Every structure is written in C-alpha cells, then in structure tokens.
Amino acid sequence: MTTELRSQMIALLPRLRAFGRSLTGVADQADDLVQMTVEKALCNLDGFTPGTRLDSWMFRIMRNAWIDTIRARKDTQALDDASAETLVGDDGRTTTEARLHLADVQRAMAGLPEEQRAVLMLVCVEGMRYREVAEALDIPEGTVMSRLSRARLALAGQLNKTPDAAPQKGFAQ
C-alpha cells in the first residue's frame, strides 16, 4: 500500500464515521462499522482501481458491511451516548435548543428507510454529487435523485409537524 493511499484513508476517517453514524444511529456502532470498513478495504486493496475515487469505494464498502450486519443482527439494545457529550462554556439555552433540534432531526432521519438515509447523508452532509453517490452505492443516478427527494420531503414533513396543528383542508398530513 502506498503512503499516499494510506494518507487518503486516514483523511477519510471523519467522513466515514459521520456516514457510519447516519447508518447506525449510535457512535459506538459507527466506530465498529468504520473499523470493519477500513479492515475490508485494506484486505481488498486489489479491488480499488487507482485513479478512481477512494471515498466512493470506501462508502460502498461501508454500506455493504452495514447491510451484512443488519442481516446477521440479533435483537440488541442501543445505548444513546448523547448524554456523555458535554459542552463547556456555551450558552445553556442555545445549547439546549440546538440539542433538541438535532434530536428531532436524528429521530426524523432514523425514521427514514436506510436507502433514503444513506443518500441524504452522502449528498447533504458529505457534499457528494449525485454521480458520486450513484457510484458509491452502486445504483443509477436517477434513483439517487428520487431517494433524495423522498427523503427531503419526509424530513420536512416530520420536522414541520406541530402536535396541535390540525390538517389543512385539501392537504394530506
């Protein structure tokens, strides 16, 4: 393995962790998924084509590893580590509001089907282009666009819901 490829893999770790977190929903499982992804990538370096995008290749490995994990999973209980994270020196009200909003977004994203959640994460968080996401997930570009559209609509619908709001005439809730 070249030093350059190793450096690129190391630089990808934060992005892989973020994508892993979007798939798993929990930091410890995301870390395990990142480790599994890097291990598989290192064991299968001959499958990487020099001159192509390393990030797309590794995101595809991660997604496939996650699918394998889901298929093999037995009933487990996830632990939320949000309470373990502390912010020192921030305005309490702003921090609380931001955490509540983030929790709402996380719940809404968790409610999305995995394929929509993966596309949303890669496009909106990772900033990947549709073509790159299509490559990474091994799906057509049109499928990326439709999944992203459905994910955005579902998120907007969930985040704009208010408990006391009655459905407006002519609009489905």
Shape: globular
Number of strands: 0
| Main sheet properties | none
Element order: H for helix, E for strand: HHHHHHH
The helix-and-strand class reads mainly alpha
Q: Count of DSSP helices?
A: 7
User: How much strand?
Assistant: under 5%
Radius of gyration: 18 Å
Helix content: 55-70%
Nearest-integer average pLDDT = 80
- The low-pLDDT segments are 163-173
What distance lies between the first and last C-alpha atoms, to the nearest angstrom? 53 Å
Q: Can you give a write-up of this model?
A:
- The protein is built from seven helices and no strands.
- It is mostly helical and 173 residues long.
- Helix 1 packs antiparallel against helix 2 and helix 1 crosses helix 3.
- It is globular and about 50 Å long.
- The relative contact order is 0.11.
Strand and helix layout:
Elements: H1 3-24, H2 27-43, H3 54-72, H4 92-110, H5 114-125, H6 130-137, H7 141-159
Summarize the structure.
The protein has 173 residues and is mainly α. The chain has helices at 3-24, 27-43, 54-72, 92-110, 114-125, 130-137, 141-159.
Structure keywords:
single chain, about 170 residues, mainly alpha
